[in-house]
Specification:
This protein is an alpha+beta fold. The chain folds into 2 domains: 59 residues, no CATH class; 133 residues, no CATH class. Helices cover 54% and strands 15% of the residues. The chain is built from 7 helices and 5 strands. Helix 2 packs across helix 3, helix 3 packs across helix 4 and helix 6 packs antiparallel against helix 7. The longest helix is centred in the middle third of the chain and has 26 residues. 30% of the residues are buried. It binds zinc ion (ZN). Zinc ion binds next to helix 2 and helix 3. The site of zinc ion has 6 residues, from helix 2 and helix 3.
Length: 233
């Protein structure tokens, strides 16, 4: 993150406070804060109907960037308003850890597609700058002929390009799997978050790689993801 020079620091913190107030006003569940944790994390508890922001102790030097704080609070707001799955992906207990590792970034990106749209509404300057930065970074990697080595890279690159197209109106030239990922995102209206839409997006993204699909199933009263191999015959 680029730190503002001293004369702008006051204006910047005023702008941040305004964004935070706008964001916090949208919550109905109380937002509690806990200090002295090892990491910054936000937990949304659908049973107690409360959000808990965990701040790292100062000595850990892990104070999140403002953008990260906004992003996690965006997840929390969607978890409250739409469904707890919007907080972070939750998988069936017996999910193969290797599969989860392979696709974790894909499930995260599907949620982030909605978080971004929400933040474009609440914090358009901050979120817009973030989109632009991700687009520049992705475009540069693709120009340098970066191979598409992992699910994570293809999905993150695809989301950066899809976001730029949706919110900035500029289409990028893509091929192959990357085009399919961009299209899967663009088919999903991010300003209308629903569990059904999320599941369709996840399936659309998984379909690009052709090996697995996923569905939300109920385990002890909570919806969790089940990942299944695609049957080939
Ligand atoms: Zn996220």
């Amino acid at each position: 993150m680029i730190l503002a020079k001293r004369p702008n620091a006051g204006a910047r913190s005023a702008a941040r406070k305004e964004v935070m107030d706008r964001l916090l006003a949208r919550f109905e569940w109380p937002v509690e804060e806990e200090f002295m944790h090892s990491e910054f994390e936000v937990h949304s508890d659908p049973v107690r109907k409360v959000h808990v922001v965990q701040w790292p102790r100062e000595s850990a030097h892990k104070e999140p960037a403002f953008e990260r704080y906004l992003h996690e609070m965006g997840h929390a707001l969607l978890a409250e308003k739409v469904h707890p799955q919007f907080s972070r992906p939750s998988f069936l207990r017996n999910t193969d850890p290797a599969l989860r590792n392979t696709y974790q970034a894909l499930f995260d990106a599907a949620l982030d597609w909605y978080v971004q749209a929400l933040l474009m509404e609440i914090a358009p300057d901050q979120q817009g700058a973030d989109l632009d930065a991700r687009f520049r970074q992705t475009a540069q990697m693709l120009r340098q002929g970066a191979a598409l080595p992992s699910v994570e890279f293809v999905v993150d690159a695809g989301m950066a390009l899809a976001s730029f197209q949706r919110f900035r109106g500029l289409e990028a030239d893509t091929q192959g799997k990357l085009t399919e990922v961009v299209q899967a995102f663009l088919r999903t209206p991010p300003d209308k978050p629903t569990l059904f839409g999320l599941q369709s997006l996840v399936r659309g993204l998984l379909g690009v790689f052709g090996m697995h699909t996923a569905s939300l199933v109920s385990e002890k009263g909570f919806e969790r993801w089940r990942i299944d191999a695609v049957k080939k015959d």
